[in-house]
Amino acid sequence: MDRRPGLSVRLKLTFSYAGFLLLAGTVLLGAFAVFLGDYRERAQDAGKVVIAPSGPELLREFAPLAAGAIVFLLVFGLAGGWLLAGRVLAPMSRITDATRAAARGSLSHRIELDGRQDEFRELADAFDAMLARLEAHVVEQQRFAANASHELRTPLAITQALLDVGRNDPNREDSELDERLRAVNARAIDLTEALLLLGRVDRQSFAREEVDLSLVAEEAVETLFPLAAKHGVAVDTVGDVTPVLGSHALLLQLTTNLVHNAIVHNVPDGTVRIGTSMDSVGAVLRIENTGDRLDPHVVATLTEPFQRGTERVRSDHVGAGLGLAIAKSITEAHEGTLSLGPRAEGGLCVTVRLPPLTRRAS
Fold this sequence. Notes:
Layout (H helix, E strand, L loop, with lengths): L8 H37 L9 H34 L1 H14 L15 H50 L5 H29 L6 E4 H19 L2 E6 L3 E4 L1 H17 L6 E8 L4 E7 L6 H4 L23 H11 L3 E6 L5 E7 L2 H5 L1
Parallel strand pairs: 2-4
Antiparallel strand pairs: 1-3, 4-5, 5-7, 6-7
Helix pairs in contact: 1-2, 3-4, 4-5, 5-9, 6-7, 7-9
């Protein structure tokens, strides 16, 4: 933005300090002159002998002293104001330098102002927190782009290889090759749809309505019941009415992804427990499953796109590796939080917290 040149804040503060000091000094000198003149008049009325000079003589003798005092106050105010303004505004220079560094693309720079809490340090701390989030987001997006390229390249390369084999082999049987080709294409389509959903959630382009999380959980379990039966996993759902404000379709996608993840990444004859409740903070959706013991460092990365536990292998039901990433994006789009934690006995505990309906509606 082009702006016309103007006075710096430091210069404005300097003039303000000097002007206030000059005004205060002038008022003080004027009050002293009035007081002295009034005292002389009252003393003369009382018949007292006053050694002080008369009014004109007092003005002639007092005026040069007053003028000298005013000039001194002006110079002192300007010099002192300049030094004080520079000291007060010193943190702004560091904040400005950090802002310029961030504008040039350096998100690793931090202000880290020391000293006691005040407005400048609150601004600096907020700016540092923003830079940290931006840096983490950029790193995550870079990792996402690299992983996405790898994941998309694989099915496309397989498709091309299968097509080349089919074209060069006139005696092939179409059934087996066509089936494999359809499976690879289906995986590519699922991955593309997941990426599109992830992008739509990040833009928060959806309507909001009152939704009961307990009913959403039951709907998700009903949809995935055949998959749970195939894997031999028992699913238990409990919970009270849990109203929130959001998109029913996206909250159903969120719950379905989490339950699907809990079923697929489980042990034979394992269990999945789903609970919904309300607490002092808001609505809570908690999903726990049995399974292998997970490293906490691995669990911390599972919400990143295409990340999987070290013991997880690909199968027909593992998905595209975006389930938890989409769940996290949907949660954040609803102004909530999603946290993962390994269970001591094995498996994973996923907790989703969303704002209560009353707070969101206000």
